[in-house]
Amino acid sequence: MSNNDILKRIRYIFDYEDSKMIKLFGLGDLKTDRAEVSNWLKKEYDEEFKEIRDIELAMFLNGLINDKRGKREGVEVKPEKYLDNNIILRKLKIAFNLKTDEMLDIFKKAGKPIGPHELSAFFRNPNQNKYRACQDQYLRNFLLGLQAIYRKKEG
């Protein structure tokens, strides 16, 4: 999944307006404006489309964490210059204060259940023997599960 796809899906799942998106970037210490956010959200074939870099998405996700959980006292979280699906999944877990059972339920809501050992492998240190890279389909299914839960609450 591209960073732009992830940003679009999060915006859709939680029905964030432009002003909320700008606020979340700001909470992650990235000053942006409506035009830049709009360009990140455009279709790839649009001539104004702009790819969002890893560090910018990391700042958005940090802003999401700060919005949902509050800023951590003392320690300033530096945004990652390189993101992978494991880091994105971890940041979403932190932002929504999800426990293992809740995350497993989210995967189940997407119609793609996984086991607790498989889930824990995504959060291990990459140098550990049981570490497993989170492939695109797992992140996509997790976001679909979030959508099934949070978009349903609207109506």
Supply database-style keywords:
155 residues, mainly alpha, 8 helices
Descriptive overview:
The protein is mainly alpha-helical and 155 residues long. The protein has two domains: 3-69; 85-154. It has eight helices and no strands. It has helices at 3-14, 18-27, 34-41, 54-69, 85-95, 100-109, 116-122, 136-150. The two termini are 28 Å apart.
Short note summarizing the structure:
By secondary structure, the protein is mainly α. It contains eight helices and no strands.
Helix content: 55-70%
What's the shape? globular
Please state the oligomeric state of the protein chains shown: single chain
Work out the helix count: 8
Low-confidence runs of at least 5 consecutive residues: none
Fraction of residues in β-strands? under 5%
Report, as a whole number of angstroms, the end-to-end distance: 28 Å
Number of domains: 2
Main beta-sheet strand count, sense and barrel state: none
Secondary-structure-derived class: mainly alpha
Number of strands: 0
Mean pLDDT equals 94
Secondary-structure map:
Blueprint: H1 3-14, H2 18-27, H3 34-41, H4 54-69, H5 85-95, H6 100-109, H7 116-122, H8 136-150
Helix pairs in contact: 1-8, 2-4, 4-5, 6-8
